[in-house]
Write a structure and sequence with these properties.
Blueprint (H helix, E strand, L loop, with lengths): L6 E2 L4 E6 L2 E6 L1 H7 L2 E5 L6 E2 L4 E7 L3 E5 L4 E6 L2 H4 L3 H4 L8 E5 L11 H10 L3
Antiparallel strand pairs: 1-2, 2-3, 3-9, 4-6, 5-8, 6-7, 8-9
Length: about 130
């Protein structure tokens, strides 16, 4: 349920590092809690984000939720498929449901993220 090759945030985003780039999305837990996602607001390509800063919004039948950047960097790609098919996040949150690709500006920030085992412990600690 939580792939080992990803890093996770306490705000339920994941990042898959590929060299100096990272593909970002929402965790299974986040999409499950939100329910059916009906709208996704993605950042503009070229936008610079800081770790922990809002980069977009997802809206579901239950609520709207901000999405936070797991690492600092520049947005080099967004998943425009989500504009027309936001439910892709519900169906394949670690695959086709990715949200953006960052060109990572400070690789040392990775140390602030959790691996899959730690993220699962964190979910238990916060009562999920």
């Amino acid at each position: 349920m939580y792939p080992e090759d990803l890093k996770y945030t306490k705000t339920h985003e994941w990042i898959r590092l590929e060299g100096n780039r990272g593909r970002v999305g929402l965790t299974h837990y986040a999409q499950d809690q939100l329910g059916d996602i009906v709208f996704v607001e993605l950042p503009a390509v070229g936008k610079v984000v800081k770790q922990g800063e809002t980069f977009g919004v997802v809206e579901s039948v239950k609520a709207a939720s901000d999405c936070y950047a797991p690492l600092s960097g520049k947005v080099v790609e967004v998943n425009s498929r989500l504009t027309d098919e936001p439910a892709t996040i519900n169906q394949d949150c670690y695959g086709q449901g990715w949200m953006m690709v960052l060109e990572v500006s400070d690789p040392s920030e990775v140390g602030k993220l959790m691996d899959a085992a730690r993220y699962q412990e964190y979910l238990k600690e916060v009562g999920h």
